[in-house]
Design a protein that fits this description.
Shape: globular
CATH architecture: Alpha-Beta Complex
Structural class: alpha/beta
Number of domains: 1
Strand order of the largest sheet: 3-2-1-4-5-6-11-9-10
Strand content: 15-25%
Radius of gyration: 18 Å
Number of strands: 11
Distance between the termini: 35 Å
Bound molecules: beta-D-ribofuranose, calcium ion
Oligomer: single chain
Length: 311
Protein backbone atom coordinates (compact mmCIF):
# COMPACT_ATOMS: atom_id res chain seq x y z
CA UNK A 1 0.00 0.00 0.00
CA UNK A 2 1.19 3.50 -0.81
CA UNK A 3 1.47 5.85 2.17
CA UNK A 4 -0.42 8.99 1.09
CA UNK A 5 -1.52 12.34 2.45
CA UNK A 6 -4.57 13.96 0.87
CA UNK A 7 -4.32 17.74 0.68
CA UNK A 8 -7.76 19.15 -0.14
CA UNK A 9 -10.34 21.94 -0.09
CA UNK A 10 -13.72 20.16 0.22
CA UNK A 11 -15.45 21.08 -1.96
CA UNK A 12 -17.98 18.85 -3.68
CA UNK A 13 -15.64 16.83 -5.91
CA UNK A 14 -13.04 16.70 -3.13
CA UNK A 15 -15.71 15.04 -1.00
CA UNK A 16 -16.41 12.46 -3.70
CA UNK A 17 -12.66 11.88 -4.13
CA UNK A 18 -12.27 11.19 -0.41
CA UNK A 19 -15.25 8.79 -0.46
CA UNK A 20 -13.44 6.81 -3.16
CA UNK A 21 -10.00 7.08 -1.54
CA UNK A 22 -11.37 5.54 1.64
CA UNK A 23 -12.06 2.31 -0.24
CA UNK A 24 -8.98 2.20 -2.48
CA UNK A 25 -6.92 -0.86 -1.52
CA UNK A 26 -3.81 0.79 -2.98
CA UNK A 27 -3.75 3.46 -0.26
CA UNK A 28 -2.58 3.73 3.30
CA UNK A 29 -4.09 7.15 4.06
CA UNK A 30 -1.93 8.75 6.75
CA UNK A 31 -3.64 12.12 7.06
CA UNK A 32 -5.82 14.77 5.50
CA UNK A 33 -4.55 18.33 5.25
CA UNK A 34 -6.87 21.22 4.45
CA UNK A 35 -6.36 24.43 2.54
CA UNK A 36 -8.50 27.42 1.60
CA UNK A 37 -9.75 27.05 -1.96
CA UNK A 38 -13.28 26.30 -3.04
CA UNK A 39 -14.37 27.93 0.24
CA UNK A 40 -12.62 29.29 3.35
CA UNK A 41 -10.12 27.28 5.37
CA UNK A 42 -12.51 27.21 8.30
CA UNK A 43 -15.15 25.61 6.11
CA UNK A 44 -12.88 23.19 4.20
CA UNK A 45 -11.56 21.97 7.56
CA UNK A 46 -15.06 21.61 9.00
CA UNK A 47 -16.11 19.68 5.90
CA UNK A 48 -13.05 17.41 6.01
CA UNK A 49 -13.69 16.55 9.65
CA UNK A 50 -17.37 15.87 8.96
CA UNK A 51 -16.61 13.76 5.94
CA UNK A 52 -13.95 11.66 7.68
CA UNK A 53 -16.37 10.87 10.48
CA UNK A 54 -19.26 10.18 8.07
CA UNK A 55 -17.27 7.53 6.18
CA UNK A 56 -15.38 6.14 9.18
CA UNK A 57 -11.97 7.32 8.00
CA UNK A 58 -10.02 7.61 11.23
CA UNK A 59 -7.01 9.72 10.29
CA UNK A 60 -5.64 12.99 11.65
CA UNK A 61 -6.87 16.18 9.98
CA UNK A 62 -4.40 19.07 9.88
CA UNK A 63 -5.36 22.63 9.05
CA UNK A 64 -3.17 24.50 6.57
CA UNK A 65 -3.17 27.84 4.78
CA UNK A 66 -6.06 30.30 5.01
CA UNK A 67 -5.06 31.96 1.73
CA UNK A 68 -2.45 31.95 -1.01
CA UNK A 69 1.22 32.68 -0.34
CA UNK A 70 1.37 36.17 -1.86
CA UNK A 71 -2.08 37.09 -3.12
CA UNK A 72 -5.67 37.80 -2.21
CA UNK A 73 -7.83 34.74 -1.89
CA UNK A 74 -10.22 33.72 -4.67
CA UNK A 75 -12.82 31.02 -4.12
CA UNK A 76 -15.26 28.88 -6.11
CA UNK A 77 -18.32 29.24 -3.86
CA UNK A 78 -20.54 29.93 -6.86
CA UNK A 79 -19.79 26.38 -8.03
CA UNK A 80 -19.55 24.50 -4.72
CA UNK A 81 -22.04 26.54 -2.63
CA UNK A 82 -21.10 28.92 0.20
CA UNK A 83 -20.50 26.01 2.56
CA UNK A 84 -18.57 24.02 -0.08
CA UNK A 85 -20.87 21.06 0.40
CA UNK A 86 -24.07 21.95 -1.43
CA UNK A 87 -25.85 22.79 1.83
CA UNK A 88 -25.22 19.35 3.36
CA UNK A 89 -24.02 19.79 6.92
CA UNK A 90 -22.02 16.72 7.93
CA UNK A 91 -22.02 17.63 11.61
CA UNK A 92 -19.23 15.96 13.52
CA UNK A 93 -18.25 15.20 17.08
CA UNK A 94 -14.52 15.85 16.65
CA UNK A 95 -14.39 19.52 17.49
CA UNK A 96 -10.70 20.15 16.90
CA UNK A 97 -8.17 19.48 14.24
CA UNK A 98 -4.61 18.43 15.15
CA UNK A 99 -2.46 21.09 16.78
CA UNK A 100 0.24 20.90 14.06
CA UNK A 101 0.01 23.06 10.92
CA UNK A 102 -0.34 21.17 7.63
CA UNK A 103 3.15 21.82 6.22
CA UNK A 104 4.84 20.71 9.45
CA UNK A 105 2.68 17.58 9.46
CA UNK A 106 3.59 16.82 5.83
CA UNK A 107 7.26 17.10 6.70
CA UNK A 108 6.97 14.96 9.81
CA UNK A 109 5.19 12.19 7.89
CA UNK A 110 7.75 12.45 5.07
CA UNK A 111 10.59 12.00 7.54
CA UNK A 112 8.86 9.01 9.13
CA UNK A 113 8.29 7.33 5.73
CA UNK A 114 11.84 7.90 4.46
CA UNK A 115 11.12 8.67 0.80
CA UNK A 116 7.99 6.55 0.35
CA UNK A 117 5.35 9.21 0.99
CA UNK A 118 3.15 10.38 -1.91
CA UNK A 119 1.17 13.60 -1.74
CA UNK A 120 -2.19 13.86 -3.47
CA UNK A 121 -3.17 17.51 -3.74
CA UNK A 122 -6.67 18.32 -4.99
CA UNK A 123 -6.87 21.98 -3.97
CA UNK A 124 -4.66 25.05 -4.36
CA UNK A 125 -1.02 24.15 -3.68
CA UNK A 126 -0.33 26.59 -0.82
CA UNK A 127 0.35 23.96 1.85
CA UNK A 128 2.85 22.18 -0.38
CA UNK A 129 4.50 25.45 -1.37
CA UNK A 130 4.90 26.37 2.29
CA UNK A 131 6.34 22.94 3.07
CA UNK A 132 8.99 23.21 0.34
CA UNK A 133 9.99 26.72 1.39
CA UNK A 134 10.26 25.80 5.06
CA UNK A 135 11.96 22.41 4.60
CA UNK A 136 14.64 22.40 1.86
CA UNK A 137 15.30 18.68 2.42
CA UNK A 138 11.64 17.74 1.82
CA UNK A 139 12.02 16.92 -1.92
CA UNK A 140 14.31 13.99 -1.26
CA UNK A 141 11.86 12.65 1.32
CA UNK A 142 8.93 12.39 -1.11
CA UNK A 143 8.27 9.77 -3.79
CA UNK A 144 5.93 11.79 -5.99
CA UNK A 145 3.13 14.33 -6.04
CA UNK A 146 -0.15 13.84 -7.86
CA UNK A 147 -2.20 16.98 -8.33
CA UNK A 148 -5.58 17.86 -9.69
CA UNK A 149 -4.71 21.12 -11.32
CA UNK A 150 -3.55 22.82 -14.45
CA UNK A 151 -4.10 22.11 -18.10
CA UNK A 152 -1.93 21.99 -21.19
CA UNK A 153 -4.57 24.03 -22.97
CA UNK A 154 -7.70 25.87 -21.79
CA UNK A 155 -8.54 26.92 -18.26
CA UNK A 156 -11.72 27.05 -16.21
CA UNK A 157 -10.98 29.87 -13.72
CA UNK A 158 -9.89 31.99 -16.68
CA UNK A 159 -9.38 31.17 -20.37
CA UNK A 160 -5.76 30.33 -19.50
CA UNK A 161 -5.81 28.86 -16.00
CA UNK A 162 -7.36 26.03 -14.06
CA UNK A 163 -8.77 27.00 -10.63
CA UNK A 164 -6.34 25.21 -8.26
CA UNK A 165 -3.34 26.76 -9.99
CA UNK A 166 -4.98 30.15 -10.51
CA UNK A 167 -5.81 30.31 -6.79
CA UNK A 168 -2.12 30.23 -5.83
CA UNK A 169 0.19 30.34 -8.88
CA UNK A 170 3.37 31.05 -6.92
CA UNK A 171 2.85 28.04 -4.66
CA UNK A 172 2.12 25.90 -7.71
CA UNK A 173 5.33 26.96 -9.42
CA UNK A 174 7.32 26.19 -6.27
CA UNK A 175 5.82 22.69 -6.34
CA UNK A 176 6.65 22.12 -10.02
CA UNK A 177 10.22 23.30 -9.41
CA UNK A 178 10.83 21.41 -6.17
CA UNK A 179 12.53 18.42 -7.74
CA UNK A 180 9.82 15.85 -6.98
CA UNK A 181 7.99 14.36 -9.99
CA UNK A 182 4.61 16.07 -10.31
CA UNK A 183 1.83 14.16 -12.06
CA UNK A 184 -0.50 16.83 -13.40
CA UNK A 185 -4.08 15.56 -13.61
CA UNK A 186 -5.30 18.66 -15.37
CA UNK A 187 -8.41 19.62 -17.27
CA UNK A 188 -7.14 17.77 -20.40
CA UNK A 189 -8.01 14.53 -18.62
CA UNK A 190 -10.50 15.48 -15.89
CA UNK A 191 -12.94 17.16 -18.31
CA UNK A 192 -13.30 13.70 -19.89
CA UNK A 193 -14.16 12.10 -16.54
CA UNK A 194 -17.75 13.27 -16.84
CA UNK A 195 -20.52 11.57 -14.89
CA UNK A 196 -24.02 12.14 -16.26
CA UNK A 197 -27.09 12.48 -14.04
CA UNK A 198 -27.89 8.84 -15.00
CA UNK A 199 -24.44 7.69 -13.84
CA UNK A 200 -25.00 9.48 -10.55
CA UNK A 201 -28.37 7.75 -10.10
CA UNK A 202 -26.68 4.38 -10.65
CA UNK A 203 -24.39 5.20 -7.74
CA UNK A 204 -27.28 6.33 -5.52
CA UNK A 205 -29.16 3.11 -6.33
CA UNK A 206 -26.45 1.19 -4.46
CA UNK A 207 -28.42 2.32 -1.43
CA UNK A 208 -25.79 3.11 1.22
CA UNK A 209 -25.85 6.44 3.03
CA UNK A 210 -22.53 7.25 1.34
CA UNK A 211 -23.97 6.49 -2.12
CA UNK A 212 -26.93 8.77 -1.41
CA UNK A 213 -24.59 11.48 -0.15
CA UNK A 214 -22.62 11.14 -3.42
CA UNK A 215 -25.79 11.86 -5.38
CA UNK A 216 -26.99 14.69 -3.14
CA UNK A 217 -23.70 16.55 -2.89
CA UNK A 218 -23.23 16.83 -6.68
CA UNK A 219 -26.72 18.17 -7.48
CA UNK A 220 -25.75 21.85 -7.17
CA UNK A 221 -22.87 21.44 -9.61
CA UNK A 222 -25.05 19.48 -12.02
CA UNK A 223 -27.51 22.41 -12.04
CA UNK A 224 -24.60 24.87 -12.49
CA UNK A 225 -23.15 22.84 -15.38
CA UNK A 226 -26.55 22.58 -17.05
CA UNK A 227 -26.57 26.36 -17.40
CA UNK A 228 -23.24 26.04 -19.21
CA UNK A 229 -24.73 23.45 -21.55
CA UNK A 230 -23.05 20.42 -19.94
CA UNK A 231 -25.14 17.42 -18.92
CA UNK A 232 -23.35 16.11 -15.82
CA UNK A 233 -20.40 16.82 -13.56
CA UNK A 234 -16.70 16.65 -14.39
CA UNK A 235 -15.09 14.48 -11.74
CA UNK A 236 -11.86 16.46 -11.44
CA UNK A 237 -10.65 15.43 -8.00
CA UNK A 238 -11.98 11.84 -8.12
CA UNK A 239 -10.14 11.29 -11.42
CA UNK A 240 -6.87 12.51 -9.88
CA UNK A 241 -7.48 10.24 -6.89
CA UNK A 242 -8.00 7.16 -9.05
CA UNK A 243 -4.93 8.04 -11.10
CA UNK A 244 -2.87 8.27 -7.89
CA UNK A 245 -4.01 4.77 -6.96
CA UNK A 246 -3.55 3.11 -10.35
CA UNK A 247 -2.52 4.87 -13.55
CA UNK A 248 -3.31 1.94 -15.85
CA UNK A 249 -6.60 3.38 -17.20
CA UNK A 250 -4.99 6.76 -17.90
CA UNK A 251 -2.53 8.14 -20.46
CA UNK A 252 0.31 10.25 -19.06
CA UNK A 253 3.31 11.74 -20.87
CA UNK A 254 6.62 13.10 -19.54
CA UNK A 255 6.47 16.89 -19.56
CA UNK A 256 8.23 20.04 -18.49
CA UNK A 257 5.76 22.20 -16.61
CA UNK A 258 6.01 25.72 -15.15
CA UNK A 259 3.40 28.19 -13.98
CA UNK A 260 2.88 31.70 -15.34
CA UNK A 261 3.00 33.97 -12.28
CA UNK A 262 3.18 37.40 -13.91
CA UNK A 263 0.92 37.49 -16.95
CA UNK A 264 -2.14 39.70 -16.75
CA UNK A 265 -4.38 37.49 -18.88
CA UNK A 266 -2.39 34.27 -18.55
CA UNK A 267 -1.88 34.24 -14.77
CA UNK A 268 -1.87 30.68 -13.46
CA UNK A 269 -1.40 29.00 -16.83
CA UNK A 270 0.54 25.75 -16.59
CA UNK A 271 2.93 26.20 -19.51
CA UNK A 272 3.58 22.62 -20.56
CA UNK A 273 6.33 21.34 -22.79
CA UNK A 274 5.37 18.04 -24.34
CA UNK A 275 6.79 18.28 -27.83
CA UNK A 276 9.53 20.90 -28.09
CA UNK A 277 13.26 20.34 -28.42
CA UNK A 278 13.45 19.38 -24.76
CA UNK A 279 15.28 22.42 -23.45
CA UNK A 280 13.04 22.31 -20.41
CA UNK A 281 13.78 19.60 -17.90
CA UNK A 282 10.98 17.09 -17.61
CA UNK A 283 9.76 17.68 -14.07
CA UNK A 284 6.68 15.49 -14.23
CA UNK A 285 3.89 14.05 -16.30
CA UNK A 286 0.88 15.56 -18.01
CA UNK A 287 -2.03 13.16 -17.63
CA UNK A 288 -4.00 13.63 -20.84
CA UNK A 289 -6.60 10.90 -21.11
CA UNK A 290 -8.76 8.41 -19.23
CA UNK A 291 -10.72 5.35 -20.25
CA UNK A 292 -14.15 6.67 -19.25
CA UNK A 293 -15.87 3.30 -19.06
CA UNK A 294 -13.14 1.89 -16.85
CA UNK A 295 -13.29 5.02 -14.71
CA UNK A 296 -17.02 4.62 -14.16
CA UNK A 297 -16.60 0.91 -13.42
CA UNK A 298 -13.99 1.69 -10.77
CA UNK A 299 -16.25 4.32 -9.17
CA UNK A 300 -19.06 1.76 -8.93
CA UNK A 301 -16.75 -0.96 -7.61
CA UNK A 302 -15.50 1.33 -4.82
CA UNK A 303 -18.92 2.73 -3.91
CA UNK A 304 -20.34 -0.82 -3.69
CA UNK A 305 -18.07 -1.40 -0.74
CA UNK A 306 -20.11 0.94 1.46
CA UNK A 307 -22.59 -1.20 3.34
CA UNK A 308 -26.31 -0.72 3.10
CA UNK A 309 -27.53 -0.63 6.70
CA UNK A 310 -30.64 -2.60 7.57
CA UNK A 311 -33.81 -0.63 8.43
C1 LIG B 1 -10.68 22.01 -9.27
O1 LIG B 1 -11.13 23.22 -8.68
C2 LIG B 1 -12.05 22.95 -7.66
O2 LIG B 1 -13.20 23.74 -7.83
C3 LIG B 1 -12.37 21.48 -7.71
O3 LIG B 1 -12.54 20.96 -6.38
C4 LIG B 1 -11.14 20.89 -8.37
O4 LIG B 1 -10.13 20.61 -7.42
C5 LIG B 1 -11.18 21.94 -10.70
O5 LIG B 1 -10.68 23.03 -11.44
CA1 LIG C 1 -10.63 20.51 -4.98
Amino acid sequence: MKPVIIDCDPGVDDAVAILLANKLPEFNILAITTVAGNVSLERTTYNALGLAEFIGLDVPVYRGAAGPMFRERVDAAEVHGNDGMAGIDLAHSRKEVEGVIAWDAIYQHAVAWKGELELIAIGPLTNLGMAFIKYPDLPKLLKRIVIMGGSTNEGNASPAAEFNIYADPEAADIVFCAGVPVHMCGLDMTMKALMTPEDIERVAALGSKEAKFFRDVVQGIIAFMKKLGVDGINMHDPAAMLYAADGSIFKAYPAGIRVETRGSITLGKTVTDLYSDAKWPKNGFAVMDVDCEAFMARVMELMKQYQVLAG
